[in-house]
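Standup notes
- DV: blocked on the single-chain target, sequence here:
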Amino acid sequence: MIAPWYKQFWPWFLIALPGAAVIASFATLYLAISSPNDMVVESYYKKGKGINSDLSLMENARQLGINAKVRAERDHLVLNITLPEAQRAQPLSIQLAHRTQAGKDYQAMVTADANGEYRFAHDLSDQGRWYLQIMPVDKSWRLEESLVLPLGIEEVIDGK
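- DV (later): unblocked, structure below
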């Protein structure tokens, strides 16, 4: 005698395949609804118009011979920067922006310690690609670099 269909393997196997797809679609729907859509740049037009001024600030840094090195130490990042004599020990604006999640962006005004290094806190457990921007208070120059956290080695930022 043949066992009823619900005691057979194949009907359940054939039901499980589309059932798994339905469950996966509900999980995808939940992720789509619960996570916000962050715009990396809110006004692309204004950002596009500002590219020329951005390039001139980076060129100013290059002409002044400004470069920097970033390294990770315990729970913060350390910036060692080469500045002209007239600009040493001035506060710097540091912006660390996540490539896709604006809620993780970090911005601070930092001053040099006794060794001339700038230390700024950041949650180094956040892995991924980040965008680092360094500017003085007078906004006369700028350094930019793309970083991948966690930093394994010291990263050189020379404006190239």
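- Follow-up: The domain at 44-157 is CATH 2.60.40.10 (Immunoglobulin-like).
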